[in-house]
């Protein structure tokens, strides 16, 4: 029986070997394999540009390429943000590394001033609010330029056409005001920096740089709503919502100048005349007048009018000198704007 079964099995193997298309038996040298490196590499093939379920070669798509590069840029930015968070965590647990926080803030400000994805901006605004809440001295006690740069960046994002970005920027700007108010029942520094930053943005409007004032008005309305619904500070001394309302009113006035500036983008002389009238209207607000005088000087430099730019700087120096003379009268300091009247009699207007 065993012999019969062995012969039967041998016969079945021979039948299978003689069947057409059947794979050959494996051998030691690999010649009988259905796949080996030699036979596979000898067949010419064209690799597809990208993977496809159907196995077909795809044509290069610039839109797909831009999408991939955008995702890669977002991932890189997220890694940088994670690194900043780690640095902040390390600094919070030690006492001798507080100086690193200024560098963290500078990196965040640089990220806010560059084009980023909405996903990254959402996390960036969250980290910025956390940093300002934990370390308010970074903006309000030491580095005033950081406060000015942050206010200007937030205002730019408040005019974004993307509603999600506007809401995040509005929340950050409101919390910045609130944080400054909680320190001394007044947010004069943030109020001044926001007003000056908006004036600078308005003056920078050109064919290469534009922002939508309607979107910015929506963001200002959102900030005003935040202040009105903030029950913790509504009954405080020198009411916080009223101060926010005054600031929003001033910003709306500056935005009305924006509409006028856009009308004369193609007429440099009328554009400069309008800037002069706006600066003239801020004589009772020295910070804003100084900002507009600086904006006029920069515009004159761009147009090659160096004498007019120098005259704007003389008026700026006379204005600063006048207020320094009012604050403290020192022998080694100029006697106000009178000192600059030797250069131009118009300096007495300051």
Outline the structure in words.
The protein has helices spanning 2-18, 37-41, 62-92, 100-112, 118-134, 137-142, 144-158, 163-184, 188-203, 213-228, 231-234, 240-263, 268-281, 286-302, 306-327. With 350 residues, it is mainly alpha-helical.
Structure at a glance:
The protein is mostly helical and 350 residues long.
What layout of secondary structure does this protein have?
Elements: H1 2-18, H2 37-41, H3 62-92, H4 100-112, H5 118-134, H6 137-142, H7 144-158, H8 163-184, H9 188-203, H10 213-228, H11 231-234, H12 240-263, H13 268-281, H14 286-302, H15 306-327
**Mind summarizing the main beta sheet?**
none
Low-confidence stretches: 1-6, 16-49
N→C terminal distance: 124 Å
Strand content: under 5%
Order of helices and strands: HHHHHHHHHHHHHHH
Question: Structural class of the secondary elements?
Answer: mainly alpha
Radius of gyration: 34 Å
Mean pLDDT value: 77
Number of strands: 0
* Helix fraction bin: 55-70%
Shape: globular
Number of helices: 15
